[in-house]
Write a structure and sequence with these properties.
single chain, alpha/beta, Rossmann fold, 6 strands
Length: about 220
Amino acid sequence: MSYIGVENAGDKPVTHDWKEYGDSVEIPPSTKKLLIGLQIYGPGQVWFDDVKVTTGDASATATGTSDTTIIKVNEATVQYLYETPPRPNASGSGLLIVLPRGDGSAEFLSFVREIHKQTVGEEFALAQPIATKWSTGQEIVWPTKTNKVDGMKYSTEEFIGGVITDVAKKTKLDPERILVLAWSSSGPAAYATMLQDETPVSGSLIAMSVFKPNTLTALGPP
């Protein structure tokens, strides 16, 4: 039997965002069945995603690694979830930035991972910004330079720019393949990002979202 993570009920509890756990174990030649148990000791919450078992040479399986990254934007601390491209391109990998709808929280990661897997391919890195709650009763999840909320210290355009700059320090990027995906309530922020005078984003897919030209500098009144 092999344990990955906390082994005994008395072990120190852990608290963190999404984290990848993995290990290698030796399987006896006579083994006929493998059982995988996912559990939590005591009260609390735990989420599992993308659980897999590989046999043989594990290094032959192409998988990216993920982490929660903290950066500064306008001296404010922000977070985004990042996954390396499973098969980086030496000439420059693509980057898919996903702005979830709803509250823009880390709970969308499982869904965002599936989008990444099914759409852009293994040469793309993945970044999911985590929305900041600036004030009580805040209705705009992804505020922009022209569509602000009380207390905000940076816009979503600046957040996305900071994410791209930080990812470029980790992975060589192809500037022609930096894409933003948004839907529903995150759509206006994606429009605002694309319509900047100088944008680091080469393209966007925006689905099922409102379009408010009066909140976009490039399309607003002169």
